[in-house]
Prior knowledge:
This protein is α/β, with parallel strands linked by helices. Helix content is 34%, strand content 17%. It contains 16 helices and 16 strands. The strands form three sheets. A seven-stranded parallel sheet has the order 3-4-2-5-6-1-7, sandwiched between helices. Strands 10-11-9-12-13-8-14 form a seven-stranded parallel sheet, with helices on both faces. A two-stranded antiparallel ribbon has the order 15-16. Helix 2 runs parallel beside helix 3, helix 3 packs across helix 4 and helix 6 runs parallel beside helix 8. The longest helix is centred in the N-terminal third of the chain and has 14 residues. The radius of gyration is 22 Å and the shape is globular. The protein starts with 10 loop residues before the first helix and ends in a 45-residue tail after the last strand.
Amino acid sequence: MTQFKELGLKEDILKGIKDLGYEEAFPIQEAVIPVLLTGRDVVGQAHTGSGKTAAFALAMLEKIQPKNGIQGLIIAPTRELAVQITEEIKKFGKYTKIRVATIYGGQGMGIQLDALDRGVEIVVATPGRLIDHLKRGSIELRDVTHIVLDEADTMLDMGFIDDIQFILDLAPEDRVMSLYSATMPTEILRLSEEYLNNPKQFLLDADDLSGDGIDQSFLVIKDRDKFKYLIDFIKPIKRQCIVFCSTKYRTRDVAKFLHQEKFNAVAIEGDMSQHRREQSMGKFRSGKADILVATDVASRGIDVPRVELVINYDVPNQELTYFHRIGRTARAGAEGRAITFVSYSSVGDWNLIKRQIKAPLRDLNQEMGIQISIPDPLKRQMPSRRYGGQSRSNYSRGGRSGGYGGSNRGGDSRDDRGGRKRYSDKDSKNSYGGRSRW
């Protein structure tokens, strides 16, 4: 593997990298950083946990000059991801004197205006709140030389493409731009063709949605038994755990239950104020809380290397959501586990997800000798299938088909701009074609 010192980065950046304990670059960093440093645009396709944040952040820090105004702009779909990116840039740029501001809906405008008034060189923003600042003149893009669109497919799903085009039309044409996305739907490809100049394309891990390197397993149980098994799996862990739930109501119930059982848990869900959400994430990131209970609002905004176990308390409605969830463990080459609780009503959704998992998948019902009693309508549709040389129960679609029906809007509330419908966890849709899962 290539070491960071071989990529042409300045000594003060290398010093920040060394402080974090890194020496060797991940494949996407090794590929992308030299290209960005030459001034060429980049399109990168890589799944979560591949190290793309460091790839664009380090290249941007290398080229930006302190005290020269806003030169770098990073656009992210959710406030959690924006905060995460900001924290990473601050760590890497510890010795560079480059300042970063995070701009997102749900936080008071005054806090952001104060940060901008003090002077910053990089802005990390969600689209709606960025447009608010652009319209009031508190952010200007005339000196921007580097632009990043992160999680572009999520921004497409959340309906941000028009906002992105509005922002890019205000930016200088002479800039280095990169776009990163786990998937490349037609709309994203069109966006890259319109706004990027002869980009170098890196399709790293484009076909790898297996969650390779993560010990993946599932347990089919009655919904009312989930609490019991949750405790059984959490008790032995030595590091941290994330429990993903499908709705804000589930999140509250699970967090309350864990508190009653004397676990040090925090929660994130859509009805919480931004201050409380930041408090919860701060406790979890600092290690003051051992368990985070969250809706999918947080599945792309968590980067905590100590996460040992991810539990899908509810089966997600989309295949990609599953991989984004489990990608919160086994970060930076560490080992991790992911366990999915499959209630009888969710076997159809789980069946769709299982077809996408190419890594070994353990059937905990077999390993633990737990008998299942599938209702007759599902039992009649239960074909037998083999995974990795072992017999696995493969449930048919059973109930609702799930899949890619509609966009996953679970979280960032379109940045609280007036005049248009905002989608968030508050809407109780969690939200695939407007139907409530619970």
